[in-house]
Write the structure tokens for this entry.
Amino acid sequence: MPEASPPEAIKILFVDDEPDLVPLIRQKFRSQVRAGTVALVFAADGVEALEHLREDHDIEVIVTDINMPRMDGLTLLGELGDLGRRTRAVVVTAYGDMENIRTAMNKGAFDFLTKPIDMDDLQITLAQAREAVERDREADRVRRTITRYLSDKIAHAVLSDPAATGSSERREVSVLMSDISGFSQLSERLEPERVVELLNVYLGAMTEVVDAHEGAIDEFIGDAVLVIFGAPLEMADHALQATACAVAMQNRMASVNEELESRGLPPLKMTAAVNSGEVVVGTIGSESRAKYGVVGTAVNLTARIQTMAVPDEVLISETTYRAAGGEDGPVRLEGTRRVSLKGFAEPIAIHSVAEVAGVEGGAVPHDESALVPLDAPIPFGLAVLDGKEITNDAHAGEIVALSATGAQIRVGTPLDTRADVRVTVDLDDGPASIYAKVHHVTPSDDGAEARLRFSSVPPAAAAAFARLL
């Protein structure tokens, strides 16, 4: 059997103006001090005690007399609340002094002792205070653990009312989903440890933005982030907050990429979408394993809309736009189109957000570099993707203009706006596959001319393109 770990040390502050008390306390707790389970601090009055408390955040138990010069024990108890410290205070008072005992307990005292102090009673009371401190420590450990895996708001809901999280309810919410463009191809080029490092930088920054907009992160799905606005805590302006959050996330990508560059990691592009509607929120799972989550058509539609976004773009549904105020609201649009989405019978309107007016940094950043016509077009083979699957054979085409973020192409097949494509070009070192989203399409007699927005460009292709710009 492994030996039990020794109890964590507890620091006790004794506050009393009787100098004879100090050697008595040191003698009584000598063995515990030597064993490292107790640490002692002494103060002659409340003023000195507060100085210790401000400097030493490890003090968790206070034993204080009431009648002392400069500051008495009852005043000290009142000051403890202003410090924002969670300490267990034991008050020492004269026998039968019920008025002071009542006042002390009302001010948050943990317990009281009467004079003259019985050392055995003191030991028992401090043992009880230690148990209370250890319960506090365990609660803090649980909270820290939970908040590592749940957002602060969901963790608060779980900890403050565990029974409520066993139920579910219908709720009007806004759902935000973001995703790293070309992440699958990017992760293939990096060692797993570097992928984790990259994700931690990205997700850490996105979490800060979500928290600032009072969203609740439901989960990380690989590189994707699913955020709820309006649950578990109700939010009247959830559509506007979610849209503003998505815009802020796009703006945060500049500093994310600066951090990635400093670590020798490639830059990222992100897409984001917001949809609003009625969902069911609550606990999903079994008795042994469950999570707080959200289900409903509104979630599925958010995911579908997000796949239509080009890098650096924020798309919102018509429902979200109306809930955020519509034409009279602060959300300004760059464009609107109707699209048919898999799993939905009718075409829906999706809006590309230009800015959220009245919000600092509320404009969606644009990295739309000017296209440079090529003297000699670059031939390629193009395949249309459906999710991760290639839906047809490669079609011949050529790149006629380039920018740092995309290309203008001619191709011998019709293309749909917002389609995902793979473009394969021949380089000196061999073929290179570039992944992109179709941004604009102009049909032609023999196929289409289209504007592509790059999602993932391998380093060799990026270097070759840079030499042409």
In short: Residues 10-147 form a domain with the Rossmann fold fold (CATH 3.40.50.2300). Residues 404 and 462 are 8 Å apart (CA to CA). Confidence is low (pLDDT under 50) at residues 1-5. The first strand starts at residue 10 and ends at 15.
